[in-house]
Write a structure and sequence with these properties.
Blueprint lengths: L9 H5 L8 E6 L2 E6 L3 H20 L3 E5 L3 E4 L2 E3 L3 E5 L17 E5 L5 H15 L3 E6 L4 E8 L2 E9 L3 E4 L2 E7 L9
Parallel strand pairs: 7-8
Antiparallel strand pairs: 1-2, 3-6, 4-5, 6-7, 8-9, 9-10, 11-12
């Protein structure tokens, strides 16, 4: 039996096309990783935080916010952060198909089945790629954590839970009332 040891490159991965219904595809170390689509809590929190950030970014003419877009982190790695932000002065570096420059902020909303990916794998990968700011939001535990890259290490610079208010880089003037991003059961 012959086993192929050839890894798929980011360029090859981007030529696959759109994700099949019901799943999200990413390229991790040259292999296609499949994960299920988000839960209701995940989706709700993502929409709510995106609304807050998009309004603030537009109002202050800071740049652009993107969701679920292929982002190249290396020759064999393409991830889809839940949200990412690129500052206005760097927008000219963006191409049409994927983000090929390190975003200024990546945000991951944790899904129960993929918490280790966001807290371990992506945490390390975003750090190594030089992403200046990384937020991890957990809609089940109702927690918010903001990390800033300092001397090639992420440092926790803001955190909150349930009904607290937080301010975090790269938007230190924006106060986010966490109760506005959590889904409540009816």
């Amino acid at each position: 039996m012959i086993t192929s040891t050839t890894k798929m490159t980011a360029r090859q991965f981007l030529n696959i096309g759109e994700d099949p219904p019901g799943v999200r595809l990413e390229l991790v170390n040259g292999e296609v990783a499949v994960s299920p689509r988000p839960s209701l809590d995940h989706s709700y929190t993502l929409v709510r935080i995106a609304r807050i950030l998009d309004a603030y970014i537009d109002e202050n003419d800071l740049g652009q916010l993107f969701t679920d877009v292929d982002t190249i982190f290396g020759e064999f790695d393409v991830r889809c952060p839940d949200l990412l932000f690129v500052r206005k002065n760097r927008l000219r570096l963006l191409k049409k198909k994927a983000v090929e420059v390190p975003p200024d902020l990546c945000i991951e909303v944790i899904s129960p089945t993929a918490a280790h990916i966001d807290r371990d794998d992506k945490f390390g990968q975003y750090r190594e790629a030089g992403i200046p700011c990384y937020w991890i939001i957990d809609p089940i535990e109702k927690t918010f954590e903001a990390f800033e890259l300092r001397k090639k290490a992420y440092v926790l610079v803001a955190s909150g839970q349930r009904d607290t208010k937080v301010c975090a880089v790269p938007f230190p003037e924006l106060q986010i009332h966490l109760t506005r991003i959590w889904r409540t059961s009816l």
